[in-house]
Amino acid sequence: MLDPELRYTYVNRTLARMNGVPAEQHTGRTIAEVVPDIDAREDVLRQVLADGVPREVTSSGHTRAGSERERRYWHGAYHRLEENGQVIGIFGIVLEVTDAREHERELERAQARLSVLDRAATVVGTTLDMDTTCNELAGFLVPYLADIATVDVVPSDVGLRMRPPSRGVLRLRRTAVAAVPDLEARVRSFGRPGEYLDHQPGSAVRRCLAAGEPVLENLLDDEALLRSAPTPGRLAAYRELGYHSGLLVPLLARGEPVGTLTLVRAGDSPAFTDHDVVTAQDLAGRAAISLDNARRYTREHHIALELQRALLSGPSSPHPALEVASRYLPSGTSALVGGDWFDSVQLSPHRTLLVIGDVMGHGVEAAVDMSHYSAMVRVVAEDGMAPHLVLDRMDALMARVSGERPATCLLALVDTRRGVCTYAGAGHLPPAVIDIDHRTHLLNVPTGPPLGTGFGGYVSWTRPCLGGDTLLLYTDGLVERRGEDIDHSLLRLARLRLPRNASLDLLLDRLLAGMGAGGTDVEDDVAVLAARIRPEHAGPTAG
Length: 543
Hints:
The chain is of the alpha+beta class. It has helices at about 15-20, 30-35, 40-50, 100-125, 130-140, 160, 185, 205-210, 220-230, 235-240, 275-310, 365-380, 385-400, 485-495, 505-515; strands at about 40, 55-60, 70-85, 85-95, 150-155, 170-180, 195-200, 215-220, 245-255, 255-265, 320-330, 340-350, 350-360, 405-415, 420-425, 430-435, 440, 445-450, 460-465, 470-475, 525-535. The longest helix has about 40 residues, at about 275-310.
């Protein structure tokens, strides 16, 4: 109970214990005199005295009773006391709500962290490129959580690019730097993206990676800052920058270190809190998975691409009367390289079999299956069968092999002596012929099911091959585009005007450029095989 001057007239034992002051020592003293470190909200109490309307209010702070809590909270309900129409004071009931309030604050912090993670998920890890992901992470954290953010990754190619680091030195590759505008120019001197940084023993980065735990260093003095820096020479630059607090978080994926995230606060920014550490850990954990996926993708993409290039040898030498050129472009947007292949096989002094195919799917498995198809067509074609019989034999053989992926394929048997070309297709796109007037014609070659399905039923189709005409065999990556009907895609090819009398190499360069091969909307590999009968060797049907 309080009198009209808000002096204690009575407290029970529980409140006395809360305040850490004996009950008798409350009487006649104000709240501020008994517990000066509490925000008692006396303004609310005076309103209750003035108008008699009961009110509830939450106060906070610390009493004289010891507590390990960062802050304590009490909820009070207050009523005016009257006697014979005279206001004699206030009656209050107080309940400590510290536990509930801290629980509520923890929920608020958790919701805030989840909100941050949700936002980060939309802007960090949008691609399978490691450097892009690092830049997205650093850019997201500035200025939300730090004045400066850097991302350094454990390099996989140091040995190929420079001498190894000195003994006991840890070398990382800086992949991203972000800073508030006032610090951007000065931060560049600490290492630009793409540079390699060596870290001395005992540095904060070394300790962070060794322990696999965050390293929080607030309000560092010169000695601590010198010890934490990558090299001793950084101290003067750090002080000029106003660097006073650092937070380093390891980027760990599947238990392995991917790199480190470094957050810096400078100038008037506050020191990092434990809640900042938790938020940074959450973001680093999400980003590390994206970085590891990007690293694994890069490694597998490189392996598959090198394997495919090794297996995809250039077309063998055709008959001298036939010019042949080829191009292969791996997709920059698909998850992995595909199973495209091409070949030319000389079967006799005047007959050359042109081959193009595409194994379904991507990755190392598709590249390996591609090599099986490529080798098989060479073996089967040596028997001199018509193209449709070659496809029949291959389809039957591949259908018996467990695990082989289906493949589309197009064969073109060029007979330079007779001046004819015989085609057979297995689910492949139609070939094109560019005539001497540089007009492009799509050939309506009958096509059967893809190889490996076991259905067979292929048909050969023959037409004249005129001297100077250019035959184009290609995979779907040349024409297909996201959201575009295939008929429209083929029409774009048919309408393409290519240079007259150009070499095959120049013609293919113009073809790829004209079709936009290599663009961001190309989702598959591109393989093209071009062949031309030299006019002086054209057979009797030419002209």
